[in-house]
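User: Structure please.
Assistant: Input sequence and predicted structure:
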Amino acid sequence: MIYSFSVLLFILGFATGIPAIAPFLRMRKIKEDSAIINGVVQVNDSAPSGLMTSFVGKTRHPQILYEVPDKKEFSIEVWDNSIYRLYRYKSGDTVEVIYDKKAPWAAYPQKEWDNVLRDLWTAGTEILVAIVLWNIGTVLHLPM
């Protein structure tokens, strides 16, 4: 039984961590030569996205508009979904945007960086607990 929990936690750790790796690497590259600026959230709710995902919640694609110091305006589209309609981004909110100074169109909201780090730490913890459980079963000579 303990081995089953261990294997399930191990799989869960990979399922949590693998989707977070690509955004982490992209954001880390942007962060190398970056600046921070405030952006404004604009949410356009569309009926099709709500209808297509209504059985698991509603997915929205808010735009975060930000203006770099040389007066050029850019936007980022993020995915914001919720089963209980508790969204991370609300229209009119001000959020921190980290953008690459050399390529200001490459940017991300600070909230997304925090979420990716949370997912990576959660995945690492799940894998570590899986390894500890497996070793406990081995040390105690529990049957598989």
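The first strand starts at residue 34 and ends at 42.
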